[in-house]
């Protein structure tokens, strides 16, 4: 998720037991021309296999992006056929490629042929309910050499409205002989189990559900594997976690950009952990451009006690 699953976020997910993490979506053409922010997104975050997700609509740039990613230490290349953003689909990338399966497959084939790294694909169910073609595209992608498929249980036209339809991922599972991962609306262990049951998938991917709760991925993984589930951090431990992420974001982006990018994460931590603060305090926390002030507020707000920061 662009602007969300950056290296500091992935480091936390890995620390709390995530089995695999994926880079922010990287625009292959911008990466190929040396765009600084796309190059930043290539950074490896920890010890897990380094999965780099590329988006684009031209084979030459996706191939070049895969080459650059490999040189930067990528272990797996993931091709994005799922992003519903108008900015992406208006450029005929992301989920827009599901409207033109032949073009999507030409891109996939080009990347598979160009790299020795495993190639995976992330997609949606289709563009809309009249074109639920994920199973057909997945089958053709696997025939071209793709080694894993992830499916978000919505169409592009749903964006993030309604609910993910996990049962509609099952035709993809039935169509291919590689692991299929189900994604969408997986926010706790019960939903993870239901998604696996309805879809028949081999694993779950968690996106928005981990916003403000980066430990959730590891908790769900542990529960699914019958291992002890680590408790969510609270109080001082939570404040220390958030302060560490904030500091790493300032390094990752530079202070001027970092203080702004961090705001959404600070807000998600309030929402995800049901921490209530008054409007003025929230306005100051999310509006301040003084890192020292924000760090002080992190300790006072998030470390004040579970659901007791008002």
Automatic annotation (TrEMBL):
<dbReference type="GO" id="GO:0000049">
    <property type="term" value="F:tRNA binding"/>
</dbReference>
<keyword id="KW-0820">tRNA-binding</keyword>
<feature type="active site" description="Proton donor">
    <location>
        <position position="83"/>
    </location>
</feature>
<keyword id="KW-0285">Flavoprotein</keyword>
<comment type="function">
    <text>Catalyzes the synthesis of 5,6-dihydrouridine (D), a modified base found in the D-loop of most tRNAs, via the reduction of the C5-C6 double bond in target uridines.</text>
</comment>
<feature type="binding site">
    <location>
        <position position="122"/>
    </location>
    <ligand>
        <name>FMN</name>
    </ligand>
</feature>
<keyword id="KW-0560">Oxidoreductase</keyword>
<keyword id="KW-0694">RNA-binding</keyword>
<keyword id="KW-0547">Nucleotide-binding</keyword>
<keyword id="KW-0819">tRNA processing</keyword>
<dbReference type="InterPro" id="IPR024036">
    <property type="entry name" value="tRNA-dHydroUridine_Synthase_C"/>
</dbReference>
<feature type="binding site">
    <location>
        <position position="53"/>
    </location>
    <ligand>
        <name>FMN</name>
    </ligand>
</feature>
<dbReference type="GO" id="GO:0050660">
    <property type="term" value="F:flavin adenine dinucleotide binding"/>
</dbReference>
<dbReference type="InterPro" id="IPR001269">
    <property type="entry name" value="DUS_fam"/>
</dbReference>
<dbReference type="InterPro" id="IPR018517">
    <property type="entry name" value="tRNA_hU_synthase_CS"/>
</dbReference>
<keyword id="KW-0288">FMN</keyword>
<feature type="domain" description="DUS-like FMN-binding">
    <location>
        <begin position="1"/>
        <end position="291"/>
    </location>
</feature>
<feature type="binding site">
    <location>
        <begin position="207"/>
        <end position="208"/>
    </location>
    <ligand>
        <name>FMN</name>
    </ligand>
</feature>
<keyword id="KW-0521">NADP</keyword>
<dbReference type="InterPro" id="IPR035587">
    <property type="entry name" value="DUS-like_FMN-bd"/>
</dbReference>
<protein>
    <recommendedName>
        <fullName>tRNA-dihydrouridine synthase</fullName>
        <ecNumber>1.3.1.-</ecNumber>
    </recommendedName>
</protein>
<dbReference type="InterPro" id="IPR004652">
    <property type="entry name" value="DusB-like"/>
</dbReference>
<dbReference type="Pfam" id="PF01207">
    <property type="entry name" value="Dus"/>
</dbReference>
<dbReference type="InterPro" id="IPR013785">
    <property type="entry name" value="Aldolase_TIM"/>
</dbReference>
<comment type="similarity">
    <text>Belongs to the dus family.</text>
</comment>
<feature type="binding site">
    <location>
        <position position="152"/>
    </location>
    <ligand>
        <name>FMN</name>
    </ligand>
</feature>
<dbReference type="GO" id="GO:0017150">
    <property type="term" value="F:tRNA dihydrouridine synthase activity"/>
</dbReference>
């Amino acid at each position: 998720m662009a602007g969300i699953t950056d290296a500091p976020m992935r480091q936390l997910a890995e620390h709390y037991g995530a089995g695999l993490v994926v880079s922010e979506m990287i625009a292959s053409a911008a990466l190929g021309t040396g765009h600084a922010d796309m190059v930043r997104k290539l950074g490896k975050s920890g010890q897990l296999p380094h999965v780099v997700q590329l988006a684009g609509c031209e084979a030459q740039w996706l191939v070049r992006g895969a080459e650059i990613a490999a040189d930067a230490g990528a272990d797996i290349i993931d091709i994005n056929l799922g992003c519903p953003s108008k900015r992406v689909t208006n450029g005929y990338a992301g989920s827009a490629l599901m409207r033109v399966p032949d073009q999507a497959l030409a891109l996939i084939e080009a990347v598979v042929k160009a790299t020795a790294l495993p190639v995976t694909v992330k997609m949606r169910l289709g563009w809309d309910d009249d074109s639920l073609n994920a199973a057909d595209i997945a089958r053709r992608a696997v025939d071209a050499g793709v080694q894993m498929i992830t499916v978000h249980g919505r169409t592009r036209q749903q964006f993030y409205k309604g609910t993910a339809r996990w049962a509609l991922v099952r035709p993809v599972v039935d169509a291919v002989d590689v692991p299929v991962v189900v994604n969408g609306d997986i926010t706790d262990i019960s939903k993870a189990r239901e998604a696996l049951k309805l879809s028949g998938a081999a694993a779950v991917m968690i996106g928005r559900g981990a916003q403000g709760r980066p430990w959730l991925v590891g908790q769900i993984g542990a529960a699914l594997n019958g291992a002890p589930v680590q408790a969510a951090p609270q109080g001082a431990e939570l404040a220390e976690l958030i302060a560490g992420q904030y500091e790493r974001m300032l390094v990752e982006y530079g202070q001027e950009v970092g203080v702004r990018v961090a705001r959404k994460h600070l807000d998600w931590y309030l929402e995800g952990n049901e921490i209530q603060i008054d409007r003025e305090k929230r306005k100051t926390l999310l509006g301040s451009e003084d890192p020292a002030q924000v760090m002080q507020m992190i300790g006072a707000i998030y470390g004040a006690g579970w659901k007791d920061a008002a």
